Amino acid sequence: MDKTHAPPLSGIRILDFTRVIAGPLATQQLADLGATIIKLENPVTGDEVRGMSAVGPPRSPFFVAFNRSKQSVAIDLKTARGQQLARDLAAQCDVLVQNFRPGVMERFGLDHAALRAADPRLIYVSVSAYGEHTAMRERPGFDPVLQAESGMMELTGEADGPPMRTGLSLIDTLTAAHLSTAVLAAIMSRAQTGYGDYIDLALLDTAIAALGNMGSTWLTTGTAPSRAGNNHIHSTPNGLFQTATEPMYFAVGSDKLFGELCRIIGVPRLAQDQRFETVGMRHANRDELRGEIEAVLTQHSANHWVALTRHLPAGKVRTMDEAYASPEVAERKLVHEVGDEEETFRVVRSPFQFAETPVADYRVPPKLGQDTREVLTTWLNLEDEAITALQRDGIVHCPYE
User: Which one of the listed residues 16, 47, 94, 172 is annotated catalytic?
Assistant: First the structure.
């Protein structure tokens, strides 16, 4: 179908003070939906992760992952003139997102009370570890620390091993999704009421909410689930099983799926075995069932079994290069190339796919301060001479002209 509409957030302006993962990922998602994102950065260092690479260019893979399709404006917020420029830019925006530690934006005169008093339509988002207005507000916190404190780490790892963090920044990623959803809801609400809102997001809140059914088990029964490694705490076969080559993950805990697996791998007798007839019996006799299944699976390669179990929830453990080269990733067109005169970057496309409304074109992650002069000129009507004077005084950074 011909996509003739503009991206859904076209015309929405967002002033982005965020760094590292949660905030930048959220604003990148909003950029994919068509919003104009002005990433306001420190003129010297920029986002802390810009250079977070042992080798390579100043736009590190870490930075590239969360900052495509944005404009970079470099302003020194420690100066009174820089703070005023930021306030002037905020007055031109629909949304402001920041993840400084609580109190920092107040010192800059950029807190939500001050800015929303000046512009009641502004949607102001604060992201912090423990909440903007709590006793823990001054305490820093990063994803793995919140995994530890929330109980998530205690649930992760082998049953007889130590607690373990997830390999990915799961809490940051979930917080980004919550942030995007909250901003979209606030935009809808403003369309009805004429007023913006203040959104207070905390990594702790996300972490506790992410406990999901595990947390509900404790809240309901008072008993905490035990670590189960790659197994599921309630059902089996639901875990990692060895083949003659790579291991495979099977999630076939129901009676129907279990019976189908037994038929496909050539041991239908297991579905009638008294030890494995019900979900509860299979869970109680998990080790014996694993032995029976792996005795069959280890006779052939993972690829052999993948072909036979295509209609079951099962898949082999892939390396990253296998995952990116997989036919599923290719068919969904998940990897795109974007480039400028210096570099080409491979990026993962937006997960948003609309039938009628396109996402915005992907653009390279910005160089530090590359859009400073253009934004100050077009948004604030500053003359070139005034911007040059600001740069001479170290208040702004306009290196690419």
Answer: 172
